Amino acid sequence: MNFENIKLGVAPINWTNDDMPELGGENTFEQCISEMALAGFTGCEVGNKFPRDINVLRKALELRGLQICNQWNSYELTTKSLGENIKNFTELLDFLETMGSKVIGGGEIGNSCQGQMTVPVFEGKGMLNTDEEWKTFTTGLNELGKIARARGMKLAFHHHMGTCIQTIAETDRLMAETDPENVYLNYDCGHFYFAGEDPVEALKKYVGRTAHIHLKDIRPNVLQRVHDEKLSFLTAVKQGVFTVPGDKEGCIDFPALFEVIKESDYQGWIVLEAEQDPAVANPLEYAIIARKFFKGLTNI
């Protein structure tokens, strides 16, 4: 195939950071979505400054030719009841369905260190230590995926640094212990590379069960500092561990990734999601870098 079934989106976390509101605190919702459109993207995910009034949000996006394609959902299956998770999940499904999204994303935050500024991301990552803990987690995720499927949507689970699903081995077990009709992957090359995995091999392995793709690059010198200084995930972000595809400071083999996508049956969104400090990395400038890079590799 070519890329006719692929759409390109961008995440607002490049402009305003949900976990660290001080990053991009000065950037407005209107600036964010206007610059997304100016850079040439047609879809976006949802950030903390997006209005929750459906009519206000829809009008603002339509004026700029943008569509909601996904939103992070904070699963807490390791620390809260399935009932509580279903309630939060269903509320977000209602919103995303209304906005025309076919995917609901997110990762497990219940036992994660991803949002803790002082906990080293590698040494303090969330774990599922027993078969019973794994069963509770995967059974719950499967039930949520079943709810999404019944409404014509896909649960795309995001493997993420600092969480219990970070490595390929953990992702393998997640995939093996959930129904492929209920639970898909939100593939993220940056998080796999950060975790010490080969993102190209990971995509080859999972592309058939991937419902959403995030692309970002890694600055290897900053990643080495994360290891050496035992930095937290948030500190790593603030210091610039992530950058956009197309930035010469990055190291991921994106032509190889796009070859895997091209040879697959993947249909859906590819989303630029490279959280940086907007005061250091101008969001519009970096979005344009990535958009031109994507154009060169896909002609879309």
Automatic annotation (TrEMBL):
Protein name in the entry: Myo-inosose-2 dehydratase
Domain (Xylose isomerase-like TIM barrel): residue spans on this chain: 37-288
Organism for this UniProt entry: Dyadobacter frigoris
EC number: 4.2.1.44
This protein's record includes keyword Lyase: yes
Xref: Pfam families: AP_endonuc_2
InterPro entries: IolE/MocC, IolE/XylAMocC-like, Xyl_isomerase-like_sf, Xyl_isomerase-like_TIM-brl
Keyword Lyase (UniProt): yes
UniProt lineage: Bacteria, Pseudomonadati, Bacteroidota, Cytophagia, Cytophagales
GO molecular function: myo-inosose-2 dehydratase activity
The organism's place on the tree of life at top rank: Bacteria
Keyword terms, alphabetized: Lyase
